[in-house]
Protein 1
Amino acid sequence: MGPAGSGKSTYCSNMVKHGESIRRIVHVVNLDPAAEHFDYPVLVDVRELIQVDDAMEDESLRFGPNGGLVFCMEYLSQNFDWLHEQLDDIEDDYILFDCPGQIELYTHIPVMKQLVEALQKWNFNVCSVYLIDSQFLIEASKFVSGVLTALSTMVNLETAHVNVMTKLDLLSKKDKKQLDRYLEPTMQGLLYDEFEDDKFSKKFKKLNAAIAAMIDDYSLVRFLPLDQSDEDSINYVLLQIDTCLQFGEDMEPREMREQEEDPDQVDSGFDG
Ligand SMILES: Nc1nc2c(ncn2[C@@H]2O[C@H](COP(=O)(O)OP(=O)(O)OP(=O)(O)O)[C@@H](O)[C@H]2O)c(=O)[nH]1
Ligand SMILES: [Mg+2]
């Protein structure tokens, strides 16, 4: 998940490619009814159930793009059986869900929460991965709004949750030097620097201090850095998420079985 353009589809595509290089199968489900371009192979595509044009072009609906998307996602929530059928035969069941970016799906309407509950009912371990573009983070005021959206998603979905800062390859050397401040942020410290200036009113500063204290109180907002040009960085993110999912805990016996059958084959075939 994550705001529009934060790199969700690219993340999925990078994880599929990384999976190929470490002999691990990563499936992707496209959950964006408005998706036009992605370059990963899809296991399931929500557009086969409904797409945003259906809701926009229908004479009786006539939605715009955002209302259309909400309509499609609600339609999906009424048709989870369809999704369950498509997921039923998967053996190597590490599945990424490439979600739409609209924040209201995570904060205002229940569809994503319902999806999480359905997946859990079907015995999947679920971890939310929330992506934010590092270009927006390297400025304290934008960072706060990014953190708040990540936090409200986390509180709303109630799953294990990992925040990832994407597009590090695009940061300048100067911005990279500041990165540590943002990966494990103390909000009060960040905002103190930003709003020290006298041009801000007392009330505005007080509001920001209150928001910062609230975020610090949760002390749950951390970001994993992701540089798609660095294989180690991709692997690090994958492993952190594996830990949250307890993924691969049942791998050992199967790995040993496979080694007995085929001594060359060590790390393929995970069970989720
Ligand atoms: N350099 C660089 N570009 C990236 C990275 N991730 C995404 N991009 C670019 O950012 C743009 C948006 O990426 P997408 O993966 O489509 O983002 P998205 O979150 O799926 O976007 P929506 O589905 O429209 O919400 C594309 O032009 C990508 O090529 C990255 O890590 N590095
Ligand atoms: Mg996308």
Protein 2
Amino acid sequence: MSIKKAIQNDHLAFWIIVNKDRMIRPDDQSLMMLCRWSALTFVRHYEDNIVVLGEYEKKSVFLLDTENEQLEHELPTVGLRGALMHGSPEQFGLFAKAWQYALFMRTHRYCGSCGNRMRQVDWEMATHCDRCGHRCYPRVSPCIIVAIYRGQELLLAMGTRHKNTGMYSTLAGFVESGESLEEAVHREVMEEVGVKVKNLEYFGSQPWPFPHSLMVGYIAEYAGGEITPDENEICDANWYHIDQLPLVPPTLSIAGQLIETTVARLKAKE
Ligand SMILES: [Zn+2]
């Protein structure tokens, strides 16, 4: 359904209302607002900022970004990470998309080529410069993530950003320009912990909206070298026996899924 129609007909729809880096929720239990446009009086002046996100439970889902304005309402809010953690897998995709679209619109007001004001394209998610024809799409940054095994052990590392969480995870890093996903796996693993890997196997992928990554998962076998952590990125890295793992990420994230799957496979081999 088009945005115009939804507003004119005042159909029941799901609304993801983003304010700063939080989402407004209808109550403490639900994550998405299910209501009519006429009920959203506190964001009425944002009519031009509505974006179609997709469908959920056979109803349209719209994003409304109120940017950094101080809104007058008494509804509860939730941070984006909290929403992702507590939502269903289907909601996860919608929240990730909503946040990436909001961020895209906030950071593409002006043309990067000629500096003119950009216009939002009405039939696809893009901004367009009417002066020079430059068109921008929401950025997606591929990022590899890899579970490395050696016999009955997994290589897990604590990133410097997770220093105080006690959490150990798989290695991950952004793909560089001109690089294949597999080349990125070999380079990142060598840079971060100084070991070689072989027998790369594609595992799956997951969008991760912090801020616009697409995590591409691999399972790889250790091929040589001693663990030598890159101090800028890794504070600790070790081999862990699959029966004695440290605290690892939940299976909501692809890191958690990679660890769970690799452990299950190694156990099956025992
Ligand atoms: Zn331009």
